[in-house]
Amino acid sequence: MAIVKIPTPLRRLTNEKDEVSLQSSSVTQMIADLESEFPGIKDRLCDENGEIRKFINIYINEEDIRFLKGPDSEISENDTVSIIPAIAGGVN
After folding, report:
1. How many domains does the chain have?
2. Closest to 25 measured CA to CA, from 68, 82, 76
3. Residue at 91 is within a domain
4. Of 19, 55, 73, 90, which is least packed with CB atoms within 10 Å of its CB?
5. Cβ neighbours of residue 92 under 8 Å, at least 6 residues apart?
6. Over its length of 92 residues, how does the chain's per-residue pLDDT go in tens digits?
């Protein structure tokens, strides 16, 4: 099973779990599996067209999926997937 690390802002949707184990074979499947187990999480990760939101970064073993196969990136049994929302702010 792959380990999916859940960022703090999304933990209220995962019953405060900071990581979950899934048997997903791709990022697309992982998002579907997360939605199945934790309804509402897909809306936070994907836009109305089902595309991963621009401010959501997903890494498989520290490799940005944008430099792999995007949502079609494969997930293996012992991989670690990190979901990292971009953080903005500061003073102008």
Report:
1. 1
2. 76
3. no
4. 90
5. none
6. 999 999 999 999 999 999 999 999 999 999 999 999 999 999 999 999 999 999 999 999 999 999 999 999 999 999 999 999 987 655 66
Q: Model's pTM, two decimal places?
A: 0.90
CATH number for 66: 3.10.20.30
- Residue type for 45, please? L
Establish if 92 belongs to a structural domain: no
Question: What is the β-pairing status of strands 56-60 and 63-64?
Answer: antiparallel
**How buried is 29 (Cβ within 10 angstroms: 0-12 exposed, 13-18 middle, 19+ buried)?**
middle
How far is the CA of 53 from the CAs of 15, 45, 63, in angstroms?
Answer: 22, 6, 18
Could you give the dihedral angle defined by the CA atoms of residues 50, 51, 55 and 57, in that order, rounded to the nearest 10 degrees? 110
